[in-house]
Design goal:
alpha+beta, 5-stranded mixed sheet, 5 helices, elongated
Length: 166
């Protein structure tokens, strides 16, 4: 029996990631997460559950947090994607990154990039009114090591320093 091979549809997409345009030819089913990690070699964004449940793959699209494992790369054409690699400016860490270091808000570090990206958005959304608010709006990001108190403390510090626009 002869099987005909069906070709996988490909799509040309330009992704603007961390302020740089990248023209890619991708399988139309490729997620943003896989495009970032495999095609662009930006490995700060982590693949955790690959089902949208853990938040390790959180990035920003037009300033809003999204789960890159659930987003097709082709859906991101024309959007500004920011990864954890794009937060630092001029060699200086973002205030949230600095606070995570100061508060030891990571242990194994696997969830850290997604936690930081969510924290930056949470602060921009001005949702860090209380520790309970921070916990609620960070609840989509899991930490297997249990560094939650330190994560909350880092976010609270930045929020208290006027980091609502972080």
């Amino acid at each position: 029996m002869v099987h005909s091979q069906t070709s996988v549809p490909r799509v040309g997409v330009t992704l603007t990631v961390n302020g740089v345009d990248h023209r890619l030819d991708l399988d139309s089913r490729v997620t943003l997460l896989d495009a970032l990690r495999d095609a662009l070699e930006l490995t700060g964004t982590k693949k955790g559950c690959d089902q949208g449940a853990c938040g390790a793959c959180t990035v920003m699209a037009d300033g809003r947090r999204i789960l890159s494992c659930l987003t097709l790369a082709a859906q991101c054409e024309g959007r500004e994607i920011t990864t954890v690699e794009g937060l630092a400016a001029g060699g200086a860490l973002h205030p949230v990154q600095e606070a995570f270091v100061r508060h030891d808000a990571f242990q194994c570090g696997y969830c850290t990039s997604g936690q930081i990206m969510s924290a930056v958005c949470l602060l921009a959304e001005r949702r860090a009114g209380s520790d309970a608010d921070i916990r609620e709006f960070m609840s989509g990001n899991l930490c297997r090591c249990g560094a939650y108190p330190n994560i909350v403390a880092a976010i609270r510090e930045v929020a208290g320093a006027g980091g609502g626009d972080a």
